[in-house]
Design a protein that fits this description.
Elements (H helix, E strand, L loop, with lengths): L8 H9 L6 E9 L18 H19 L2 E6 L15 E7 L2 H9 L4 H10 E9 L4
Antiparallel strand pairs: 1-3, 1-4, 2-3
Helix pairs in contact: 2-3, 2-4
């Protein structure tokens, strides 16, 4: 099975077709690789980092980019059990990021400082879901 690490062109086009001037929440569900998969030549390649280690580095180094975009975590939880539905929960990390609007999120991924940081996420993640929601009450 191939995991979902980066958005497909079709999914990103659907994201871009939605309003860009309204606040958004992004649900993040992440499953880590057992061993981080940095590209050959990266300073952390072959250093024995786990996927979780690489994701911690991603979250540490993404902070300045997130701050410029106005993004912040509004909810993060530690999984305990499924009450309704299948007992299997394949996600190691679950959280919701808030952005002032979709344009801010798009600006974040186009920030020149994003590319050298996202490599940690790509090395860390075996599978993930990133789902856009409109904040509601």
């Amino acid at each position: 099975m191939t995991g979902h690490i980066d958005p497909t062109r079709e999914n990103f086009d659907r994201f871009k077709a939605l309003p860009r001037d309204t606040p958004i929440h992004m649900l993040n569900l992440v499953r880590f690789r057992a061993e981080a998969a940095y590209p050959e030549g990266h300073p952390l390649a072959g250093k024995g980092l786990t996927g979780r280690d690489a994701y911690v580095e991603y979250m540490r180094t993404i902070q300045p980019v997130l701050e410029r975009a106005g993004g912040h975590i509004v909810w993060k939880g530690l999984f305990e059990t499924v009450v309704t539905g299948p007992a299997d929960w394949p996600w190691d990390e679950s959280f919701v990021m808030a952005y002032p609007d979709a344009a801010a999120f798009m600006g974040m991924v186009k920030d020149p400082d994003y590319a050298p940081v996202v490599v940690h996420r790509q090395a860390a993640v075996e599978d993930s879901r990133l789902v856009r929601f409109a904040p509601g009450s």
